[in-house]
Design goal:
Strand content of chain A: over 45%
Oligomer: heterodimer
Radius of gyration of chain A: 14 Å
Largest sheet of chain B: 7 strands, mixed
Low-confidence stretches of chain A: none
Number of helices of chain A: 0
Helix content of chain A: under 10%
Number of helices of chain B: 0
Distance between the termini of chain B: 32 Å
Radius of gyration of chain B: 13 Å
Mean pLDDT of chain A: 92
Order of helices and strands of chain B: EEEEEEEEEEE
Largest interface: A-B, 25 and 24 residues
Number of strands of chain B: 11
Order of helices and strands of chain A: EEEEEEEEEEE
Distance between the termini of chain A: 40 Å
Largest sheet of chain A: 6 strands, mixed
Strand content of chain B: over 45%
């Protein structure tokens, strides 16, 4: 019940295209859904996050879409750029005493110039 | 220094060696974490320290021993490791009392066990 399933494992997109990464979860107690971006040789960095009381959150070219009934959320990168090439991780956590993040397995995004 | 720093960045050790990884956070947070990152696998949470007290130990083998002397420093002591322990070890910190568990990660230590 603690799993977060992420797909695809890898994604290749042309410059200017839309990159879409999907995640699904089972634990209905999750109430915080962040996305992390990781470049080679660096630790993951928080990119954008959403709570289940909204269905969409947009920050610049990055948008999270959230479907509470389907227990799914996705990251959309509009106008993808070569500099967006990185590994993206979705995650989920619930409040209370646990406060642990459960991560997806990651998606390696390559944006071709 | 800013954010979360980790030393060393790379470590090669034999199976009989003893070494330690160090993490320091400069964010004023009160919770610190150790994660193991292996290729094509989710980040695996190893240990959680909340206000310097260990609150989670996710069935980690005893050859990994954490130490948190204060809220800014975290160590991972390693001894008699196995080749399958080779991975990127990430440290993170967060404000436990914040509304969300927004974790900030260090750059990691790339560990190779021969």
């Amino acid at each position: 019940q603690q799993q977060v399933k992420q797909s695809p494992q890898s994604l290749i997109v042309q410059k200017g295209g839309i990159s879409i990464i999907n995640c699904a979860y089972e634990n209905t107690a999750f109430d915080y859904f962040p996305w992390y971006q990781q470049f080679p040789g660096k630790g993951p960095a928080l990119l954008i996050a959403i709570r289940p009381d909204v269905s969409e959150k947009k920050e610049g070219r990055f948008t999270i879409s959230f479907n509470k009934s389907a227990k799914q959320f996705s990251l959309h990168i509009m106008d993808s750029q070569p500099g967006d090439s990185a590994t993206y991780f979705c995650a989920a956590s619930n409040g209370g005493s646990a406060r642990q993040l459960t991560f997806g397995s990651g998606t390696q995004l390559t944006v071709l110039p | 220094e800013t954010g979360v720093t980790q030393t060393p960045r790379h470590l090669v050790m034999g199976m009989t060696n003893k070494k330690s990884l160090k993490c320091e956070q400069h964010l004023g947070h009160n919770a610190m974490y150790w994660y193991k990152q292996s290729a094509k696998k989710p980040l695996e949470l190893m240990f959680v320290y909340n206000f310097k007290e260990q609150t989670e130990n996710n069935s980690v083998p005893s050859r990994f021993s954490p130490e948190c002397p204060n809220s800014s420093h975290l160590f991972l002591h390693l001894h008699t490791l196995q080749p399958e322990d080779s991975a990127l070890y990430l440290c993170a910190s967060s404000q436990w009392t914040g509304p969300y568990n927004e974790q900030f990660f260090g750059p990691g230590t790339r560990l190779t066990v021969l």
